[in-house]
Amino acid sequence: MGAPVVHFEILGKNTTKLQKFFSTVFDWKIDTDNPIGYGLIKPQRDNSIGGGIGSAGKVKGYATFYIEVDDLDKTLLKIEKTAAKLLYPLPLFPIW
């Protein structure tokens, strides 16, 4: 059996803005009650993972994660309402 993904991190320059974006779009509850304001995201369901949103420090921000949504088009519209934009047209990958 392969090793499961157990955590993800989203790191950037403006952690408050990142935390607000992901909380708004995906309804994540983000706990920042710690000395460095690192946002801990608890698993939303039994089959999901937790993660964190924090500062990238002096390096460029980055993230690696996968999010399952019920309705991709509806979610993309919600994302666009936050002033984000789609950089590449869909589908990015073949739909199986």
Strands of the widest sheet, in order across it, are: 2-3-4-1-5
Supply Rg. 14 Å
Number of helices: 2
Tell me the total number of β-strands.
Answer: 5
Strand fraction? 15-25%
> How many domain regions?
1
| Biggest β-sheet description | 5 strands, mixed
Q: What is the CATH homologous superfamily assignment?
A: 2,3-Dihydroxybiphenyl 1,2-Dioxygenase, domain 1
Give the overall shape: globular
Mean pLDDT, to the nearest integer, reads 85
Helix fraction by DSSP (H/I, runs of at least 4): 10-25%
In N-to-C order, the SSE pattern is EHEEEEH
The CATH C-level class name:
Alpha Beta
CATH architecture: Roll
Structural notes for this entry:
The structure is a single chain. The chain is of the alpha+beta class and 96 residues long. The chain has a single domain (7-80), classed as Roll (2,3-Dihydroxybiphenyl 1,2-Dioxygenase, domain 1). Helices cover 22% and strands 20% of the residues. The protein contains two helices and five strands. A hairpin with an 8-residue loop joins β3 and β4. The two termini are 23 Å apart. The mean pLDDT is 85.
